[in-house]
Design brief:
By secondary structure, the chain is α/β, with parallel strands linked by helices. Helix content is about 30%, strand content about 15%.
Length: about 200
């Protein structure tokens, strides 16, 4: 199966940036069996886009994400992903346009993948902030964006950490000094660590 795919936003961003951005998804919030894929999700559940649209409208999409979740738990997940990257040759990989780092062991697999593919930029929005601020280090080609709306927002140092905040409109976003990554996904990993997204 295709481990790395490309949603509409990734296609648009790839074209605008002359890049090849692929993404990896697992179920949002919980699997069908009730396993948590977003263990630190808080108020964000009320506006989670990954629990809307194509993610929930089409059973085949749900089934594919369930399969990817199960693959992510396998011991050979790192090898499978390395093979996929070697085959598809992305410039960037967005980890989780749906789902999150559900355990330190799973996060370590992505750290290993990033270390094995130094020529690729990996990036992820995450609410699993606790894993990182408690000493989990990542390679320089793995860019992490702390996403507000978690149970542990108090761990985010907004003057230090790259972080994402939801705004009602672009004018408010820009007025607060955030970069608008609503339509261009790579804006999330610029030198401006204040990443804004407009609610949709």
């Amino acid at each position: 199966m295709n481990l790395l795919t490309q949603n509409a936003k990734m296609k648009k961003t790839s074209k605008e940036n002359k890049a090849k951005i692929l993404n990896f998804s697992i179920p949002a919030y919980k699997t069908k069996s009730g396993k948590s894929t977003c263990p630190f999700a808080g108020g964000c559940q009320a506006y989670c886009y990954a629990q809307k649209g194509n993610y929930t409208r089409f059973p085949i999409v749900q089934e594919l994400m369930e399969k990817k979740y199960l693959l992510s738990k396998q011991d050979n997940f790192v090898d499978l992903m390395n093979e996929e990257i070697a085959k598809k040759k992305p410039t960037h990989v967005r980890i989780h346009d749906s789902g999150d780092f559900y355990s330190p062991l799973y996060l370590q697999k992505w750290v290993d993948i990033a270390n094995d593919n130094k020529g690729v930029i990996f990036y992820a929005y995450t609410k699993s902030i606790k894993f990182f601020v408690e000493g989990f280090t990542v390679p320089t080609n793995l860019k992490i964006i702390f996403s507000e709306g978690s149970k542990t927002d108090n761990l985010i140092n907004t003057s230090k950490h790259r972080h994402a905040r939801i705004f009602k409109d672009v004018a408010t976003l820009l007025g607060a000094g955030y970069v608008d990554a609503s339509n261009n996904d790579l804006k999330a990993i610029t030198s401006n660590k204040k990443v804004g997204l407009v609610y949709h």
